[in-house]
Design goal:
172 residues, mainly alpha, 3% strand
Length: 172
Amino acid sequence: MKKVKEFFKDFKKFILRGNILDLAIAMVVGAAFTKIVTSLVNDLIMPLICAIFGSATVDELYFTLNGAQIFYGRFLQAIIDFLLVAIVLFIVLRIVMDATNALKKGISEKPNKQEKAILKERGVNMKNRKEVIAATAQLREENKVQEVVKPTQEELLTQILEELKKQNKDKE
């Protein structure tokens, strides 16, 4: 009985981990997104291709070998469908990634509260976006130069040891 309780306790911990929930959400969103992309390909792109080339699909193409029909067109259609879905996904993901990068860049350029206060003290016109971004970049550069490199733990221990040795010599 104890092993059963322990099993369910471990299972509950496993299920409630963040990455499992993220994966489940990603699967649901991915399934919905797949429907959107499939509809885009089947309902918009393929009819355009049909209008241009005059044939709805190539999946009806076949040849006969010893009385058996070999539908090579179905294979070609699967390849075409795959390529169209891949292209659409690539374009959509490229747009999303570009938008995400632009948003991140925009957020990183904005000054935080502390920086805003310093910029106001310096007389920067906070309504002029370009001026604020330039002044923020300059302020951040100045702060990088002013940052003091902290000693490592080993360096601190060496300094302490030297100080103790010095104190011991003074006592003798």
